[in-house]
Amino acid sequence: FFSLRNMLSWGEPPPSFAIYFPDTPFSDDHPYLQITKACSAFWKGPGRPGLDAAALPAAMADFDALPLDLQDILSLKPKVLIQCLEYAAHQIMYKETVGCRIHVRIHNLPKCTRYSKLMASSVGKFCAIQGTVVRVSSVRPMVSAMEYKCPKCEGSQVVQLKDGAYRPPDKCMAKRCGGGRMEPWRRMASTFDWQKLKVEELKDGNEQGRIPRTIEVELKHDLCDCVLPGDMVTVCGIIKAGTGTERRRGGGTPNNAYILYMDASSCSKIGSMKNKPRVSGPADQALAGLGLEQWTEEDYQLFQNISTVPNPFKLIVNSLCPAIFGHEIVKAGLALVLFGGSQRDFGDQASPRPDSHMLIVGDPGLGKSQMLRAASHISPRGVYVCGNTTSSSGLTVTVVRDQATGDYALEAGALVLGDRGVCCIDEFDKMGVDHHSLLEAMEQQRISVAKAGIVCNLPARTSVLAAANPIGGHYTRGRTVAENLKLHPALLSRFDLIYILLDTADQEKDRLLSRHVMKLHSRMPAPTHHSTQHTLPPSEAARALTSGALSQKLKLQPHEAKMFQEIPPQCLRKYITYAKQTCNPPLNAEAAHVLQEFYLGLRSTYQNSDCTPITTRQLESLIRLSQARAKLALRSEVTREDAEDVIGLMKESLYDVLRDEAGAVDFTRLTGMSAKAQQTAFLKELARQVEKGHPALWSLQELRGLIGLMRVKIKGTADEFIHRLNEGGLLLKKGNNMYALLGGGF
Fold first, then answer.
1. Segment holding 362, helix H or strand E
2. Residue 121, class by beta-carbon neighbours within 10 Å (0-12 exposed, 13-18 middle, 19+ buried)?
3. Cβ(299)–Cβ(262) under 8 Å?
4. 343 close to 449: Cβ distance less than 8 angstroms
5. What is the SS3 string spanning 523-537?
């Protein structure tokens, strides 16, 4: 061990001194040596904190473990303290040998600095920030030292390039030379890995309507390639200032405007750190659900109180978006999507996704957008976007060109930013062709990128909550869901739950709704949508009977509404966080049997080739929702009660989607064409055949063959279908079983 005492007595610097203090001349009484001595005592303290030979060249230093005098130096001269810590660690681990350079990573600061506090006064300070990585550049070599040769005297000079700024020497420093510009000797340059991030502040409910603040973060050495776009990170480092041209290329027009950036000392993903940082300020709410919270006794008591009520499902459903009247079944679906299913790892095989997706279709003015906003606010990690202002790249990933480096970088979209959370897409019907970008993300839970020479996969483990208005502003039962929305069947099949909200006239329901709205805008006590639900409207009663009365089960009775207290959004967010962290319930034998019997019943009842196929995708949806129902009650396994509730929810969703104008459930109504649309297509095909040279008269046998060839959806036999076209004035019967097409009839 090359001790400080030997250094002071010999008066010569150890071999490694120039590695950590390249521009500092060595002297026996240099103040850095006293700081290094204190750092050596810290490293040789109990357990030698952070010095692990297997982890080198990185050495972790916990801020709480630093002595107070070193903490004071960190606040005043952070760069000096980090250099002394690295130098002391080098002396302990490598003794007199040069070895490799050690990089000290200081983490676990007492509190994180808000982005609004990062001003000019922060330059040179050591602080911690938390945020979402929205852009990641590629890893590039950065020159730290360059050797220059004089073309006149062939002398050489090594220049340290601080912070990546390229500043060549003005002239040769050799005596009696007087040479001018020196030429760089690039083969002797010293480089290190360098990467730039763009970190966006976490959502803050107190500052709505403002563009989120961002800051650039520089990662060096072993910190490179430790995060991806969409990751939520805690970064500790030194705040610096510099112009883009000065810091990167050295060229460009001089500019007095400087950019704040952070030179990272440590970078950790939120939820993966052993020492969880303590956060203060409004960002606390945004960090819920990310493994950051240290639960208190009050939190555990809250979780127990919610999970032990007689019906926690009813409690949580009626606490979601209380300003919206009714729609308990829709809110039940939202609750299950927020909790999510259980993660199952099958090794090398493709694991089923644990996240569910939900689509709400309905007439305007029924509260679809407000329910989506409430879900994004309550979710531990929620992103809300509007379809008419969102592009395909804004949803997935954008490849942008960095003006400073000229390199391409990945910038995360809404689905990547909502990783392990929910992505709420309003005005889903107005996205146009951008729907196709959701297919991979919704099923495979990832986004593949192949742009500008970048080929990679980014995680998008998010639940999609979408709301759409039908074409023409009103949902028509005579059309299929695909015709009402103009959505591709492949996209519709990826939604686990689809709900239809119709604005129908119902005197009792309208009276209760108007009473609820008046309470919202009056000085009466705080309104809840429960206190007005004394009776069940007739239309709701019919639907409750069809769906197994789950909607009636979730409604509060008059005596319950008087004593009901909804869960505050902050507490509900904590509860969802805790459930997702601690619960991963599997199916027990009884619940698996119930789900399997329901699935087999659907398969056996609706196996016609014209029907919407009932596949294992529906069975996996039932399993995911059942796991979310068990997780909602903090159960260790999925019970029969959970399976029955989910079956009732699925029946309600199917009844909404598949019911036609006559009230009958028809499994051919999810995708494809409605009966009227197929009738029109049949008549157009007749007209096309006539244009191609077919005689104007059709025999009954020819019409039957064309109906079978086109697989026209008909009620009854083909002869009855042709008879209805004749009665409707679309086909004219001439002679014995001969028919003519009337022009303009369609």
1. strand 358-362
2. exposed
3. no
4. no
5. CCCCCCCCCCCCCCC
- Whose structure tokens read 């590629």? 138
What residue type is 639 in one-letter code? T
Q: pLDDT grade, residue 49 (50/70/90)?
A: low
Q: Which amino acid is at 72?
A: D
Q: What is the pLDDT of residues 571-604, one digit of tens each?
A: 898 899 899 888 888 889 999 999 998 888 877 7
For residue 404, give both structure tokens: 């400073």
Mutual angle of helices 700-710 and 718-727, in 10-degree steps = 110
| pLDDT tens, residue by residue, 337-389 | 999 888 777 655 567 788 899 998 888 877 888 888 888 888 888 888 888 88
Question: With DSSP H G I counted as helix, E B as strand and the rest as coil, what are the percentages for the chain, rounded to 5?
Answer: 40, 20, 40
Q: Is the pLDDT of residue 248 over 50?
A: no
- Are the C-beta atoms of 494 and 357 separated by less than 8 Å? yes
Residue 317 to residue 137: CA distance in whole angstroms: 43
Residue 412 burial (CB count, 10 A): 26
Question: What pLDDT is stored for residue 208 in this prediction?
Answer: 61
b vs e for 417-440, b when ≥16 Cβ sit within 10 Å of the residue's Cβ? bbbbbbbbbbbbbebeebbebbeb
This prediction's pTM: 0.72
* Mean model confidence pLDDT for the chain: 76
Could you tell me if 364 and 473 are in contact, meaning their C-beta atoms sit under 8 angstroms apart? Answer: yes
How many residues comprise the chain? 746
What pairs with residue 196 in β-bridges?
218
Token pair belonging to 388: 């008419």
Under 8 Å CB-to-CB from 692, ≥6 apart: which residues? none
